[in-house]
UniProtKB/TrEMBL annotation:
It comes from Exiguobacterium indicum. It is found in: Cytoplasm. ATP binds at S14, G15, G16, C17, D18, S19. Pfam families: ATP_bind_3, TilS_C. This is tRNA(Ile)-lysidine synthase. It catalyses: cytidine(34) in tRNA(Ile2) + L-lysine + ATP = lysidine(34) in tRNA(Ile2) + AMP + diphosphate + H(+). InterPro entries: Lysidine-tRNA-synth_C, Rossmann-like_a/b/a_fold, TilS/TtcA_N, tRNA_Ile_lys_synt, tRNA_Ile_lys_synt_N. The lineage of its organism: Bacteria, Bacillati, Bacillota, Bacilli, Bacillales. Keywords: ATP-binding, Cytoplasm, Ligase, Nucleotide-binding, tRNA processing. GO terms for molecular function: ATP binding; tRNA(Ile)-lysidine synthase activity.
Length: 410
Protein backbone atom coordinates (compact mmCIF):
# COMPACT_ATOMS: atom_id res chain seq x y z
CA UNK A 1 0.00 0.00 0.00
CA UNK A 2 1.41 3.37 -1.03
CA UNK A 3 3.25 5.16 1.74
CA UNK A 4 3.00 2.29 4.24
CA UNK A 5 6.36 0.59 4.94
CA UNK A 6 6.57 -3.19 5.32
CA UNK A 7 6.92 -3.09 9.09
CA UNK A 8 4.73 -4.61 11.84
CA UNK A 9 1.51 -2.55 11.83
CA UNK A 10 -1.36 -1.93 14.24
CA UNK A 11 -4.63 -1.35 12.37
CA UNK A 12 -7.56 0.42 14.04
CA UNK A 13 -10.72 -1.43 12.96
CA UNK A 14 -14.26 -0.34 13.83
CA UNK A 15 -16.00 -2.95 11.69
CA UNK A 16 -17.35 -0.38 9.24
CA UNK A 17 -16.81 -0.56 5.49
CA UNK A 18 -13.78 1.74 5.45
CA UNK A 19 -11.72 -0.02 8.12
CA UNK A 20 -12.65 -3.49 6.85
CA UNK A 21 -11.48 -2.57 3.34
CA UNK A 22 -8.25 -1.19 4.81
CA UNK A 23 -7.45 -4.29 6.86
CA UNK A 24 -8.48 -6.61 4.01
CA UNK A 25 -6.09 -4.89 1.59
CA UNK A 26 -3.21 -4.85 4.07
CA UNK A 27 -3.75 -8.55 4.80
CA UNK A 28 -3.86 -9.52 1.13
CA UNK A 29 -0.74 -7.46 0.39
CA UNK A 30 1.21 -9.49 2.95
CA UNK A 31 1.69 -6.97 5.76
CA UNK A 32 2.37 -8.13 9.33
CA UNK A 33 -0.74 -6.69 10.98
CA UNK A 34 -2.48 -6.74 14.35
CA UNK A 35 -6.01 -5.41 14.87
CA UNK A 36 -7.08 -3.00 17.63
CA UNK A 37 -10.80 -2.48 18.27
CA UNK A 38 -12.47 -0.11 20.74
CA UNK A 39 -15.88 -1.17 22.05
CA UNK A 40 -17.44 2.18 22.98
CA UNK A 41 -20.27 0.60 24.96
CA UNK A 42 -22.79 3.10 23.60
CA UNK A 43 -24.88 0.98 21.19
CA UNK A 44 -26.54 -2.41 21.42
CA UNK A 45 -24.84 -3.43 18.17
CA UNK A 46 -21.36 -2.89 19.63
CA UNK A 47 -21.18 -6.41 21.09
CA UNK A 48 -21.97 -8.03 17.75
CA UNK A 49 -19.48 -5.77 15.94
CA UNK A 50 -16.69 -6.72 18.35
CA UNK A 51 -17.44 -10.45 17.89
CA UNK A 52 -17.55 -10.00 14.11
CA UNK A 53 -14.10 -8.37 13.98
CA UNK A 54 -12.58 -10.90 16.38
CA UNK A 55 -13.91 -13.82 14.30
CA UNK A 56 -12.59 -12.22 11.09
CA UNK A 57 -9.15 -11.78 12.67
CA UNK A 58 -9.08 -15.25 14.23
CA UNK A 59 -9.94 -16.90 10.91
CA UNK A 60 -6.82 -15.28 9.42
CA UNK A 61 -4.61 -15.83 12.49
CA UNK A 62 -4.31 -12.08 13.05
CA UNK A 63 -3.66 -10.81 16.59
CA UNK A 64 -6.73 -9.05 18.00
CA UNK A 65 -6.76 -6.50 20.83
CA UNK A 66 -9.90 -4.92 22.26
CA UNK A 67 -10.89 -2.59 25.06
CA UNK A 68 -14.38 -1.73 26.28
CA UNK A 69 -14.96 1.84 27.45
CA UNK A 70 -16.93 2.47 30.62
CA UNK A 71 -18.91 5.71 30.92
CA UNK A 72 -20.50 5.44 34.37
CA UNK A 73 -20.71 8.95 35.80
CA UNK A 74 -18.92 10.65 32.92
CA UNK A 75 -19.66 12.18 29.54
CA UNK A 76 -19.25 10.02 26.44
CA UNK A 77 -18.58 12.90 24.03
CA UNK A 78 -16.89 12.46 20.66
CA UNK A 79 -13.76 14.10 22.07
CA UNK A 80 -13.70 11.74 25.06
CA UNK A 81 -14.18 8.70 22.81
CA UNK A 82 -11.39 9.82 20.52
CA UNK A 83 -9.06 10.45 23.48
CA UNK A 84 -9.73 6.96 24.84
CA UNK A 85 -9.27 5.33 21.43
CA UNK A 86 -5.93 6.93 20.77
CA UNK A 87 -4.68 6.18 24.30
CA UNK A 88 -5.59 2.51 23.74
CA UNK A 89 -3.87 2.42 20.36
CA UNK A 90 -0.72 3.95 21.81
CA UNK A 91 -0.67 1.45 24.68
CA UNK A 92 -1.02 -1.54 22.35
CA UNK A 93 1.73 -0.18 20.11
CA UNK A 94 4.06 0.03 23.10
CA UNK A 95 3.12 -3.44 24.37
CA UNK A 96 3.54 -5.13 20.98
CA UNK A 97 6.53 -3.15 19.72
CA UNK A 98 4.65 -1.88 16.66
CA UNK A 99 5.60 1.65 15.65
CA UNK A 100 2.99 2.23 12.91
CA UNK A 101 -0.72 2.84 13.51
CA UNK A 102 -2.90 2.62 10.38
CA UNK A 103 -6.37 4.21 10.28
CA UNK A 104 -9.04 4.24 7.57
CA UNK A 105 -9.85 7.94 7.16
CA UNK A 106 -10.72 8.63 3.52
CA UNK A 107 -11.32 11.55 1.15
CA UNK A 108 -14.85 12.21 2.43
CA UNK A 109 -13.48 12.48 5.99
CA UNK A 110 -10.85 14.90 4.70
CA UNK A 111 -13.46 17.19 3.14
CA UNK A 112 -15.65 17.11 6.24
CA UNK A 113 -12.65 18.03 8.39
CA UNK A 114 -11.78 20.98 6.15
CA UNK A 115 -15.35 22.29 6.44
CA UNK A 116 -15.35 21.81 10.22
CA UNK A 117 -12.12 23.80 10.48
CA UNK A 118 -13.63 26.60 8.37
CA UNK A 119 -16.86 26.67 10.40
CA UNK A 120 -14.94 26.79 13.68
CA UNK A 121 -12.61 29.51 12.44
CA UNK A 122 -9.46 27.44 12.91
CA UNK A 123 -6.21 29.31 12.36
CA UNK A 124 -4.95 26.54 10.10
CA UNK A 125 -7.36 24.99 7.61
CA UNK A 126 -5.27 22.03 6.48
CA UNK A 127 -7.43 18.96 6.99
CA UNK A 128 -6.11 15.57 8.09
CA UNK A 129 -2.42 14.73 7.54
CA UNK A 130 -1.61 11.51 5.68
CA UNK A 131 1.25 10.79 8.10
CA UNK A 132 2.08 12.31 11.46
CA UNK A 133 4.06 11.42 14.59
CA UNK A 134 2.07 9.38 17.10
CA UNK A 135 3.35 8.29 20.49
CA UNK A 136 6.78 6.79 19.88
CA UNK A 137 5.94 6.00 16.26
CA UNK A 138 3.79 7.13 13.35
CA UNK A 139 0.13 7.33 12.36
CA UNK A 140 -0.68 6.63 8.69
CA UNK A 141 -3.92 7.27 6.82
CA UNK A 142 -3.27 5.68 3.41
CA UNK A 143 -6.88 5.96 2.18
CA UNK A 144 -7.13 9.76 2.33
CA UNK A 145 -6.98 10.02 -1.45
CA UNK A 146 -9.82 7.53 -2.00
CA UNK A 147 -13.53 8.34 -1.77
CA UNK A 148 -15.96 6.44 0.42
CA UNK A 149 -17.77 5.32 -2.74
CA UNK A 150 -14.56 3.79 -4.10
CA UNK A 151 -14.04 1.87 -0.87
CA UNK A 152 -17.62 0.61 -0.90
CA UNK A 153 -17.22 -0.58 -4.49
CA UNK A 154 -14.05 -2.46 -3.49
CA UNK A 155 -15.89 -4.11 -0.59
CA UNK A 156 -18.71 -5.27 -2.85
CA UNK A 157 -16.39 -6.47 -5.61
CA UNK A 158 -14.12 -8.42 -3.24
CA UNK A 159 -16.90 -9.57 -0.90
CA UNK A 160 -15.45 -7.82 2.13
CA UNK A 161 -17.94 -8.04 5.03
CA UNK A 162 -18.66 -5.03 7.22
CA UNK A 163 -21.14 -3.69 9.76
CA UNK A 164 -23.11 -0.47 9.30
CA UNK A 165 -23.11 1.96 12.23
CA UNK A 166 -26.67 3.31 12.45
CA UNK A 167 -25.47 6.40 14.33
CA UNK A 168 -23.73 7.62 11.15
CA UNK A 169 -27.17 8.56 9.80
CA UNK A 170 -27.92 10.83 12.77
CA UNK A 171 -27.36 14.59 12.55
CA UNK A 172 -26.63 15.28 16.22
CA UNK A 173 -22.94 15.95 15.65
CA UNK A 174 -21.48 18.66 13.43
CA UNK A 175 -19.60 16.16 11.25
CA UNK A 176 -22.80 14.27 10.44
CA UNK A 177 -24.64 17.52 9.69
CA UNK A 178 -21.91 18.43 7.22
CA UNK A 179 -21.94 14.94 5.70
CA UNK A 180 -25.69 14.76 5.14
CA UNK A 181 -26.55 18.42 4.49
CA UNK A 182 -23.68 20.69 3.46
CA UNK A 183 -21.57 18.35 1.29
CA UNK A 184 -24.52 17.24 -0.89
CA UNK A 185 -25.44 20.91 -1.47
CA UNK A 186 -21.87 21.81 -2.44
CA UNK A 187 -21.72 18.77 -4.72
CA UNK A 188 -24.89 19.94 -6.48
CA UNK A 189 -23.43 23.44 -6.91
CA UNK A 190 -20.05 22.20 -8.15
CA UNK A 191 -19.76 18.48 -9.05
CA UNK A 192 -15.95 18.55 -8.91
CA UNK A 193 -16.00 20.19 -5.45
CA UNK A 194 -14.72 17.12 -3.57
CA UNK A 195 -11.74 16.50 -5.84
CA UNK A 196 -10.80 20.19 -5.74
CA UNK A 197 -11.06 20.36 -1.94
CA UNK A 198 -9.01 17.19 -1.49
CA UNK A 199 -6.33 18.51 -3.87
CA UNK A 200 -6.19 21.80 -1.96
CA UNK A 201 -5.75 19.95 1.34
CA UNK A 202 -2.98 17.80 -0.15
CA UNK A 203 -1.15 20.88 -1.45
CA UNK A 204 -1.53 22.67 1.88
CA UNK A 205 -0.17 19.69 3.81
CA UNK A 206 2.83 19.46 1.51
CA UNK A 207 3.62 23.08 2.34
CA UNK A 208 3.19 22.39 6.06
CA UNK A 209 5.52 19.37 5.88
CA UNK A 210 8.19 21.50 4.24
CA UNK A 211 7.67 24.27 6.80
CA UNK A 212 7.79 21.79 9.69
CA UNK A 213 11.05 20.32 8.39
CA UNK A 214 12.51 23.82 8.25
CA UNK A 215 11.29 24.65 11.78
CA UNK A 216 12.74 21.40 13.16
CA UNK A 217 16.15 22.17 11.63
CA UNK A 218 15.97 25.80 12.78
CA UNK A 219 15.14 24.88 16.40
CA UNK A 220 17.91 22.27 16.50
CA UNK A 221 20.45 24.85 15.33
CA UNK A 222 19.21 27.42 17.84
CA UNK A 223 19.24 25.03 20.78
CA UNK A 224 21.73 25.75 23.56
CA UNK A 225 22.55 23.99 26.82
CA UNK A 226 19.94 26.08 28.68
CA UNK A 227 17.21 25.50 26.11
CA UNK A 228 15.98 27.30 23.00
CA UNK A 229 16.26 31.12 23.06
CA UNK A 230 12.72 32.52 22.95
CA UNK A 231 13.97 35.51 20.97
CA UNK A 232 15.12 33.20 18.17
CA UNK A 233 11.69 31.55 18.03
CA UNK A 234 10.02 34.96 17.79
CA UNK A 235 12.22 35.82 14.79
CA UNK A 236 10.23 33.25 12.81
CA UNK A 237 7.20 34.41 10.78
CA UNK A 238 3.88 33.88 12.58
CA UNK A 239 2.93 30.86 10.43
CA UNK A 240 6.16 29.13 11.44
CA UNK A 241 5.79 30.08 15.11
CA UNK A 242 2.53 28.09 15.06
CA UNK A 243 4.51 24.98 14.12
CA UNK A 244 6.93 25.21 17.05
CA UNK A 245 4.75 23.42 19.64
CA UNK A 246 3.81 20.49 17.34
CA UNK A 247 7.45 20.22 16.21
CA UNK A 248 8.83 20.14 19.75
CA UNK A 249 6.29 17.63 21.06
CA UNK A 250 5.55 15.56 17.96
CA UNK A 251 1.83 15.91 18.75
CA UNK A 252 -1.18 17.66 17.21
CA UNK A 253 -2.94 20.51 19.03
CA UNK A 254 -6.05 22.58 18.40
CA UNK A 255 -5.79 26.10 16.98
CA UNK A 256 -6.76 27.54 20.39
CA UNK A 257 -3.85 25.76 22.07
CA UNK A 258 -1.40 26.82 19.34
CA UNK A 259 -2.63 30.41 19.57
CA UNK A 260 -2.22 30.40 23.35
CA UNK A 261 1.31 28.99 23.13
CA UNK A 262 2.44 31.65 20.66
CA UNK A 263 0.87 34.42 22.77
CA UNK A 264 2.49 33.02 25.91
CA UNK A 265 5.88 33.12 24.19
CA UNK A 266 5.40 36.70 23.03
CA UNK A 267 4.15 38.15 26.32
CA UNK A 268 6.94 38.09 28.90
CA UNK A 269 4.67 38.12 31.94
CA UNK A 270 2.22 35.86 33.68
CA UNK A 271 2.97 32.20 34.24
CA UNK A 272 6.50 31.01 33.48
CA UNK A 273 5.21 27.45 33.22
CA UNK A 274 2.30 26.10 31.16
CA UNK A 275 1.02 22.63 30.37
CA UNK A 276 -0.31 21.29 27.09
CA UNK A 277 -1.61 17.79 27.70
CA UNK A 278 1.37 15.89 29.13
CA UNK A 279 3.91 18.48 28.02
CA UNK A 280 5.28 21.19 30.27
CA UNK A 281 6.76 24.32 28.71
CA UNK A 282 8.91 26.54 30.90
CA UNK A 283 10.31 29.98 30.19
CA UNK A 284 13.44 30.79 32.20
CA UNK A 285 15.88 33.64 31.62
CA UNK A 286 14.87 33.98 28.00
CA UNK A 287 15.02 30.26 27.21
CA UNK A 288 12.24 27.80 26.39
CA UNK A 289 12.55 24.43 28.12
CA UNK A 290 10.25 21.48 27.46
CA UNK A 291 9.68 18.19 29.21
CA UNK A 292 7.08 15.46 29.25
CA UNK A 293 5.17 15.14 32.52
CA UNK A 294 2.93 12.30 33.66
CA UNK A 295 1.00 13.70 36.60
CA UNK A 296 0.51 11.59 39.69
CA UNK A 297 -2.78 11.16 41.53
CA UNK A 298 -1.69 13.43 44.37
CA UNK A 299 -0.56 16.36 42.22
CA UNK A 300 -2.16 19.62 43.37
CA UNK A 301 -2.56 21.52 40.10
CA UNK A 302 -3.78 25.07 39.44
CA UNK A 303 -4.59 26.27 35.96
CA UNK A 304 -6.37 29.06 34.09
CA UNK A 305 -8.94 28.51 31.35
CA UNK A 306 -7.17 28.94 28.01
CA UNK A 307 -3.84 28.20 29.64
CA UNK A 308 -3.60 24.60 30.78
CA UNK A 309 -6.69 23.05 29.27
CA UNK A 310 -6.00 19.63 27.89
CA UNK A 311 -5.62 16.07 29.09
CA UNK A 312 -4.00 15.17 32.40
CA UNK A 313 -3.21 11.82 33.98
CA UNK A 314 -3.68 11.17 37.71
CA UNK A 315 -2.25 7.71 38.22
CA UNK A 316 -4.30 5.63 35.79
CA UNK A 317 -7.11 8.23 35.68
CA UNK A 318 -7.24 10.40 32.55
CA UNK A 319 -9.06 13.75 32.81
CA UNK A 320 -9.76 16.15 29.96
CA UNK A 321 -10.66 19.85 30.38
CA UNK A 322 -12.13 21.84 27.47
CA UNK A 323 -14.59 24.60 26.59
CA UNK A 324 -17.75 23.34 24.87
CA UNK A 325 -21.53 23.58 24.60
CA UNK A 326 -22.33 21.40 27.60
CA UNK A 327 -21.01 20.87 31.10
CA UNK A 328 -20.60 23.46 33.86
CA UNK A 329 -21.59 27.06 32.93
CA UNK A 330 -18.53 29.31 32.91
CA UNK A 331 -20.58 32.03 34.64
CA UNK A 332 -20.90 29.74 37.66
CA UNK A 333 -17.13 29.28 38.02
CA UNK A 334 -14.51 31.45 39.72
CA UNK A 335 -11.07 30.93 38.20
CA UNK A 336 -8.39 29.68 38.59
CA UNK A 337 -9.38 26.09 39.24
CA UNK A 338 -7.50 23.57 41.35
CA UNK A 339 -7.37 19.79 41.29
CA UNK A 340 -6.68 18.25 44.69
CA UNK A 341 -7.44 15.25 46.90
CA UNK A 342 -10.77 15.40 48.81
CA UNK A 343 -10.92 16.99 52.25
CA UNK A 344 -13.25 16.43 55.22
CA UNK A 345 -16.50 18.37 54.76
CA UNK A 346 -16.24 18.68 50.95
CA UNK A 347 -19.70 18.89 49.37
CA UNK A 348 -20.81 19.00 45.72
CA UNK A 349 -23.95 20.69 44.35
CA UNK A 350 -26.36 18.28 42.63
CA UNK A 351 -29.76 18.62 40.95
CA UNK A 352 -31.47 18.58 44.35
CA UNK A 353 -29.37 20.00 47.17
CA UNK A 354 -25.76 19.03 47.82
CA UNK A 355 -24.00 15.88 48.93
CA UNK A 356 -20.83 15.12 50.83
CA UNK A 357 -18.02 13.91 48.62
CA UNK A 358 -17.23 11.24 51.20
CA UNK A 359 -20.82 9.92 50.94
CA UNK A 360 -20.58 9.80 47.12
CA UNK A 361 -17.44 7.68 47.41
CA UNK A 362 -18.99 5.43 50.06
CA UNK A 363 -22.10 4.93 47.90
CA UNK A 364 -19.81 4.08 44.98
CA UNK A 365 -18.16 1.46 47.23
CA UNK A 366 -14.73 3.05 46.92
CA UNK A 367 -12.51 1.43 49.59
CA UNK A 368 -11.54 3.75 52.44
CA UNK A 369 -7.83 3.54 51.62
CA UNK A 370 -8.51 4.69 48.03
CA UNK A 371 -10.88 7.59 48.79
CA UNK A 372 -8.11 10.07 49.52
CA UNK A 373 -6.67 9.36 46.06
CA UNK A 374 -9.84 10.41 44.20
CA UNK A 375 -9.20 13.94 42.87
CA UNK A 376 -11.76 16.73 43.04
CA UNK A 377 -11.90 19.89 40.90
CA UNK A 378 -12.37 23.07 42.93
CA UNK A 379 -12.81 26.69 41.80
CA UNK A 380 -11.22 29.78 43.37
CA UNK A 381 -14.10 30.08 45.88
CA UNK A 382 -13.68 26.51 47.03
CA UNK A 383 -16.77 25.28 45.18
CA UNK A 384 -16.42 21.64 44.15
CA UNK A 385 -17.09 21.26 40.43
CA UNK A 386 -16.40 17.55 40.00
CA UNK A 387 -15.45 14.38 41.80
CA UNK A 388 -13.32 12.77 39.11
CA UNK A 389 -14.65 9.41 38.08
CA UNK A 390 -17.99 9.91 39.85
CA UNK A 391 -19.94 13.18 39.68
CA UNK A 392 -20.03 16.61 38.03
CA UNK A 393 -21.73 19.50 39.84
CA UNK A 394 -25.11 20.75 38.60
CA UNK A 395 -25.95 24.48 38.67
CA UNK A 396 -29.53 24.58 37.41
CA UNK A 397 -30.14 28.35 37.45
CA UNK A 398 -26.95 29.07 35.50
CA UNK A 399 -27.34 26.30 32.96
CA UNK A 400 -30.49 27.77 31.40
CA UNK A 401 -28.76 31.01 30.35
CA UNK A 402 -25.18 29.87 29.80
CA UNK A 403 -23.43 30.37 26.46
CA UNK A 404 -20.14 28.61 27.24
CA UNK A 405 -19.34 25.65 29.44
CA UNK A 406 -16.37 23.96 31.02
CA UNK A 407 -16.35 20.30 30.03
CA UNK A 408 -14.67 17.88 32.43
CA UNK A 409 -14.37 14.40 30.95
CA UNK A 410 -12.77 11.22 32.21
Amino acid sequence: MEGVPFEPLLVGVSGGCDSMVLVDRLYKEGYDIAIAHVHHGLREASDEEACFIKEWATARKISFFMTRLEWTGRTSSQAACREERYAFFERIMEETGRSRLILAHHQDDQIETLLIQLIRGEAQVDGIPVVRPFGNGWLHRPLLHESKQTLREYALQHEVPWREDASNAETTYLRNQIRHTIVPSLRDMRPEFEQAAAAAAHARQQIIREQAAFVATYLERCKEAKGIPVARILELPTDLQRLVLPTLTGEMFSSDVIRHFVTWLRVDKGSDEVYYGNWRMRRAYGFLIQDRVIRSMNDDLSFQVGENLGTYHYGEQMVRFSIGNQGIPLDAIAFPLRVRPPRPGDRIQLAVGSKKVSRILIDAKVPRYLREQVPVVVDANGVILAVIGHRIAIFGSFELLAKSYLMIEW
